[in-house]
Every structure is written in C-alpha cells, then in structure tokens.
Amino acid sequence: MKRLLTSSLLAAGVALASVASQAAPLLNVSYDVMRDFYKEYNPAFQKHWQAEGNPPVQIQMSHGGSSKQARAVIDGLPADVITMNMATDINALYDHGKLIPQNWAERLPDNSAPFTSATVFIVRKGNPKQLKDWPDLLKEGVQVVVPNPKTSGNGRYTYLSAWSYALKNGGDDKAARDFVGKLFKQAPVLDTGGRAATTTFMQNQIGDVLVTFENEAEMIAREFGRGGFEVVYPSISAQAEPPVAVVDKVVDKKGTRKEAEAYLKYLWSDEGQRIAANNYLRPRNPKILAEFSDRFPKVELLDVVKTFGDWPTIQKTHFNDGGVFDQVYGGR
C-alpha cells in the first residue's frame, strides 16, 4: 500500500511538473480573412519554438471583423497578441485602457506589418457586368458586396482605395466624397467583416462583385472551387499593411511575453514569409517576394499614410461616428 501511494504521488508530481513546464496558451485575436494563414503558420511556429529547446506552447485563435475584435480586447478578451489589418484597430488598445504603449509599431520591422496586400474585385465567372475598374462599380444596377468600414479594415481599405481613384483621376475632395458615397450605396448589405462578406457573395449568391483583399481570393478558391469567379485588379489600390502587436498588459499578467514576442517575430523569418506568400500575402522579404512573383501582379499600390495622413487622423476624419463615411452613407 505504501509503495502504491508513493508511486501515485510520484506520478502526480511528474504530471504537475509537466503542466508547469508548459507555457500558458497564447491567444491571437485576429481578423476575418486570416484564418487560413494562421492555420498554416501556427504549427510551423510551434515546431520552430520546440526545436529551440522550449516547452510546447498552445495557440488559440479568435477571428472576426477587425474593429469588433479590437473592441473585444479592450473590453477584456485576454489577447496575448493582436493581428489586425490596419493600425487604427491596434491604436485603439492604447487609446482605450493603455493596453499597449503608444509606440507599439516601432517594436518590430516595417512598422510591425510583416506583409502587405492589395484590394481586388471578385466577379462572377465571365465577368458579365464587365467590371474592370472603380467607376464600373457605380454603374446602374451593379450590386457591390463590401464589409462595413465602421467595423472592418477590409471595408476601410475599399473606401480609401475608391477615394484615391477619384482624386487621382482629376477629382477634388467633394468629388471623392460623392464617388465613395455612391459606391457604398450600391451595397445591398454591409457585413461586419470580410469573411461574412465572402459568405454573402459566394454562398448566398448576393451581388455582382465582392471587394476584398487578394489573399481572400485564394481562400475563396480553396473553399468554393475556382470555376465560379474571376479576380480583377483595379488600376489603383491602397496598400494594406496588416500590423501585429503584443498586448503588454495581458502578457505581463500571464507571464507569456517571451512566447508572444517570439511568435510575432517569427512572422519575418524565411519560413513565415513563405507561408505568407503561399497564402497570397505579399512578403516583405524582397527575395521571397521575387520567388512568388507569378502570383502577385504588379499594381499601383498607394501608401495610405502619405496619401491621407496618419491613421489616427484617418480614423477621426473618415470612420469615427459622425465622420465622412457616416455623412456620405447616411444609413440609407
């Protein structure tokens, strides 16, 4: 009996030591269209992490419209890292609760954005409405499927791309306002996030064109097949720079800073950059981008900050309550 008790205690001690040696799970709060990327990236990082002599780390994911996801973190969702599609949604963590430092974007290369993306049009097979550039989306009877810029970075990039097109083609700010307002009034519904908009277009068969990131086009092909749609690159696109950040208040409380920082840093590794390219995200590493040049057509990509000012100004001017989007859309 004594030997049995000793063995049980020893086994319990080993189990406790094993549990203690494992880090607390990491929670990555991300946006809608990054599901497939992180399905591939997370096991690659876990393998690398353990190969470095570290104990296993579990990675949990949360996906949704980017602004809604940021709001959830502000309201208490314990994200170790947040991986959004534009800086405004990470800035919000500083503005509301000081969950991160103001200079968070300076802690990793490329303003903490490990890859970029372009905005594309997904049209029905054969492009029956002949939608080739931004003005075509304003044609009578064309239904545009796009997520809400108030809740989705995807929607905000669409808005900024269309605004840029109007300015570049001889319009002033008033013309750009009118152009963007008409574009969004062509939308039969404004979903909260990019993946929901994809469901509306592909599964529910609503709309003539889905405006989304180029990496979502590949995800649509994988899920729904390649026969039902075509990808059109408009003449101009705002360059999407999806940033990432450690959520300091959470990792310091959980003791997961080391794991969280390594998880984000590995996005710039050769393996992380190739996984990005495999998922149709444009790598920052020019050598790896060149390896995949066949899948990334050259397109005029506008630098958003140089065109519109810093992200806090863009958010306040265009997307906050009462901003330009509310004025031009008007709730219809």
Automatic annotation (TrEMBL):
<dbReference type="GO" id="GO:0140104">
    <property type="term" value="F:molecular carrier activity"/>
</dbReference>
<keyword id="KW-0574">Periplasm</keyword>
<protein>
    <submittedName>
        <fullName>Sulfate ABC transporter-binding component-CysP-like protein</fullName>
    </submittedName>
</protein>
<dbReference type="GO" id="GO:1902358">
    <property type="term" value="P:sulfate transmembrane transport"/>
</dbReference>
<dbReference type="InterPro" id="IPR005669">
    <property type="entry name" value="Thiosulph/SO4-bd"/>
</dbReference>
<dbReference type="GO" id="GO:0042597">
    <property type="term" value="C:periplasmic space"/>
</dbReference>
<dbReference type="Pfam" id="PF13531">
    <property type="entry name" value="SBP_bac_11"/>
</dbReference>
<keyword id="KW-0813">Transport</keyword>
<feature type="signal peptide">
    <location>
        <begin position="1"/>
        <end position="23"/>
    </location>
</feature>
<keyword id="KW-0732">Signal</keyword>
<comment type="similarity">
    <text>Belongs to the prokaryotic sulfate-binding protein family.</text>
</comment>
